Amino acid sequence: MEAIVIAGGLGSRLRPLTDRRPKHVLPVGGVPFVLHQLTKLAAAGVDSVVLATSYHADAFAPVIGDGSRLGLRVSYVTEAEPMGTGGAIRNAAGELRSGPDDPVVVLNGDQLSGHDLVAQVARFEQSAADVCLHLIEVVDPRPYGCVPTGLDGAVLEFLEKSTDPVSSQVNAGCYVFRRSVIDTIPPGRVVSVERETFPELLRARRRVIGHPDSSYWRDVGTPEALVDASADLVHGIAKSPAYLSRPGERLLQAGAQVADPAGVHGGSVVGDDAVVQAGAVVEGSVLMPRSQVGPGARVVRSVVGPGATVGARTSLHGACVGDDAVVGDDCALGPGVRVACGAVISQGAVRRSAP
Ligand code: GDD
Ligand code: MG
């Protein structure tokens, strides 16, 4: 079975962490995110993946290679300018070998999902669908594609980012397409699969079926979601074939130096060669490689980018510090505060929310 992973978005909500790389290679549970998805695809019987890239396209190959290490054949297709989700799928289809009636799995590249993909493909086949969509229930459907279904599971509407959603059931970003349906997406222009392709398929009365599933699911497209997903992997709440450590309070990666390991908890990850000095508390956070947390600092539900420094006694709560930035001693950064790559925040600064 073949799959397409769409991974060319700008990752704007994760800036500044995505200034220098796509969100798909950011570490989640200490593993570049895309590897969670690729190993899940392999475990479900996918043997060949086309990665539809655009933004920072060069960042993928060093992480994935040709996929053979993962038991996959991975090829790359790059859009010079992002073509939208539908345009990316259409563009990637040129690499597929599947026949017109074969199923092709299509994944949004930023979803950590415990759902049973084999069961979704089985539902696609049993219902003779043109497309089968993984659906989940959420408390606030507004940031998602709202997808009400009938009693027989048929999708009734697809309402992308509705301000007035008619249902709490939403698109979870994993589709099984009949290959011939992908070929109907117009080539060579920007297409949104959510705003254009799905509504058109429904208008044309094609068979679009929902696959509701209540397993673990998260879109890691914001710093808050990224730290939560990372901690869920460390705690063992979220499962991934790419996360190989035992469940625990913390993950300390190669070369990490932590003066007081008990102070690092809540599913935190201390990346390669990162340093946490004496008396510091790191809770539910991601410290990326080579970052430094000073003595007595307090880092809670925050991301500290590669090579960044957090000063002595400084507190971060829900903050996001870009690559190589320096936050001075005795600072306090609150929820949503983002520090640009390479920025220097002087000693004693207080920022309560995003400027
Ligand atoms: N190649 C390529 N080209 N990839 C793209 C492009 C593009 O132009 N635009 C977006 N992508 C990729 C992103 O990198 C991401 O992996 C995926 O497509 C989804 O884009 P997001 O920008 O993360 O979309 P979203 O989270 O706002 O909404 C989507 O996901 C929701 C579930 O999390 C939609 O599919 C919603 O309907 C869905 O509910
Ligand atoms: Mg997303």
Task: Give a brief description.
With 355 residues, the protein is an alpha/beta fold.
What does this entry look like structurally?
The chain contains 7 helices and 31 strands. It is α/β, with parallel strands linked by helices and 355 residues long. The strands form 7 sheets. The chain has a 7-stranded mixed sheet with strand order 5-4-1-6-11-8-12, sandwiched between helices. Helix 3 (84-92) crosses helix 6 (193-203). The model has no long low-confidence stretch (mean pLDDT 97). It binds guanosine-5'-diphosphate-alpha-D-mannose and magnesium ion (MG).
What average pLDDT do the residues reach?
Answer: 97
In whole angstroms, the N-to-C terminal distance is 47 Å
Distinct ligands, ions and cofactors found in the model: guanosine-5'-diphosphate-alpha-D-mannose, magnesium ion
Strand order of the largest sheet: 5-4-1-6-11-8-12
Q: Which radius of gyration do the C-alpha atoms yield?
A: 21 Å
Q: Tally of extended strands?
A: 31
The major beta sheet can be summarized as:
7 strands, mixed
- Uncertain segments are none
Structural class, from helix and strand content?
A: alpha/beta
Indicate the overall shape: elongated
Tally of alpha and pi helices: 7
